[in-house]
Amino acid sequence: MTFSIPATAFEGFLLLRRHPLTLVWVLAVWFVGGVGSNLGPWLAPTRGPTLSPTAYGLSGLFLLLCLMGASAIVYARALKAEGRAKPLRAWPRAILFLTLFWLLALVLIVAWIVGTALAVRLFEQRVLPRGMIINYAVWPIIALTAGAVLIFWLSVRLACAGPIAFDRHQIAPRLAWRMTRGRTWRLVAVFLLALVAAVAIGVLMTMLRNWGETLIPLPTTPPANLQAFVVQSFTTVSVAYSAYDALAIALITIVLFAPGARLYAGVAAETPQSRAAVFD
Fold this sequence. Notes:
The protein is mainly α. It has one domain (5-279). Helix content is 78%, strand content 0%. Helix 2 (11-18) packs across helix 11, helix 4 (53-81) crosses helix 11 and helix 9 runs antiparallel to helix 11. It is globular and about 55 Å long.
């Protein structure tokens, strides 16, 4: 498969031009999820604005469901644009496998974070000379940098894993790895461009939001109970800011996820001989 780096990187913008309603659906998913994640602390056994492990879990569950729903919409629209429309009867299995995919990805990321923290701790205790002065400000920077590079690299090589889960109803990292074989450096360029575009959107939207808050500030008094939280969350100003935040996240979601769907559709549409080397 040959592909244009700019066209693939900016597939999200092309998708928005071809199917502008995609933004509306993804925005709606993130708006509901944002309200739900903020509601998490008030649904926990220890209710209130102080976060507990249960509150973290509830908020994380809402965000996971949002990620699954938003990515499903982006994949469905992008694959449909490439001639791989998903029939309605296949959506339940597609959603199931996409949810399993994101759960697995989340577990692996958490395991990597915990494993890195333990490895750094063991290195400090067992490897470094006794009495050596450690600059503790350096270790988090090294770990975060190494983690960001590793996660980006794996995201590039496994860019087709999400579309595969949605389209083929499989959790198939080895297949996704084969689909990007021989294209790695071009795909690094693709996803670097997409990441730069997503960061630019995030920075611009954040600047505009901060400017807006200087004109129309949000309530700063923390709600005393669940009823007060609900009332405060659904004022005109709060809803407007929540919708704006959902818009920013929706744009970033589309820009980051659409290139993987286009890549997957392109490989899947290759000649039977080329497909056999990947899918068999």
